[in-house]
């Protein structure tokens, strides 16, 4: 073999070796992501009927309406395929309920089925977190860290175990952001369609989405307008607006008050105060969300929304999230997209502050992926700084892992074993024992017990819709009878 032939072979060998290394790294990333997602799902699906205890009326309403849609194509009030679901003078959003229908078909109408829907949405949120972190950082370490942080963050984990609609919003929001950034990067129309669909679904996933989505869409128009000041280059956003508008027109016929009814009840201006009072209420609620007590210690004061142990963020990871936010502020000014992360962290109480409430985790849940991404940036930055001294790096990594493990272990043990005792009354823990085929008289002392009766007895939706016939009656009686 001549020297010329040998020289031709050497580059081929180098290329194949680099490809092999690349493929191994890709495989490791996939395995790690799969492990994170699997653990995340287990943490969310473990003992779903034990913690939270009981079954709250909102969960029962969501579950029974999904059952009613499955059996008849109508909600409990007889409205055919409604856009919003009327419940207790309020309206529930459609995404969570319609996504629950196939699960009810597969696993029947059970407590675990309703909550499994949240566990699935929460687990999908971990995957969406990885994708969004990749679109921002183009770094697999940051992406894996962000997914891992989200998987163990109490704020996100708690709502992944409740049969509440709010958990679907952060998943759809992060998916929409990821897909839109991916579409702008690759011009892949599939990405554009995913962005359009995710934005549309997010709008109808939870009430706070109606504030955040226009802000996020406006940010992207501002970000990319100089590059392509032509509306056709924003077709996923335009298509989403058209789809949302079309659905709202459809919804006006079936549930005309569905979009604004809840806001009219709970907004800081609903009782017609003066402008100064509105400003005071907003400012007070906004800063209450920024307290150490809410973010790191006891979290939401409502026991349905938080276990009040190591909540809403783990202190060991939450502190690093603020470090990461500072790093983003200082080092990513030239990469304008990172400003969205800072915006979503800095203004995270915005929607909640427009309502009359204590600090509330439900209406600020959209912030968790951005705190997680900032935390991943912070950990990677610290790792890079300490990498020069392997001894310090190893010690720091061990200390961080032990601290997070102990803090999360304490939180999760309490969530599964002690929280059910504390939160028993908050979830109407005694109701399921009052309802059975033998007990057809339900006490009227429990608020809206009818919906739990419909749920647990799997009342015939047709009979209930047409003539309010149910396999029970509600009357004034002793709750212990």
From TrEMBL:
Major location (coarse): membrane
GO cellular component: plasma membrane
Keywords attached to this entry: Cell membrane, Glycosyltransferase, Membrane, Transferase, Transmembrane, Transmembrane helix
Subcellular localization, as worded in the UniProt entry: Cell membrane
Ranges in a coiled coil: none
Topological relation to the membrane, as annotated: Multi-pass membrane protein
MF terms (GO), sorted A to Z: pentosyltransferase activity
InterPro entries linked: LipidA_mod_glycosyltrf_83 (IPR050297)
Lineage top rank: taxon: Bacteria
UniProt GO BP: lipopolysaccharide biosynthetic process
Ranges that cross the membrane: 27-45, 116-134, 141-157, 163-183, 190-213, 233-250, 313-332, 338-355, 367-383, 395-413
Protein name: Glycosyltransferase RgtA/B/C/D-like domain-containing protein
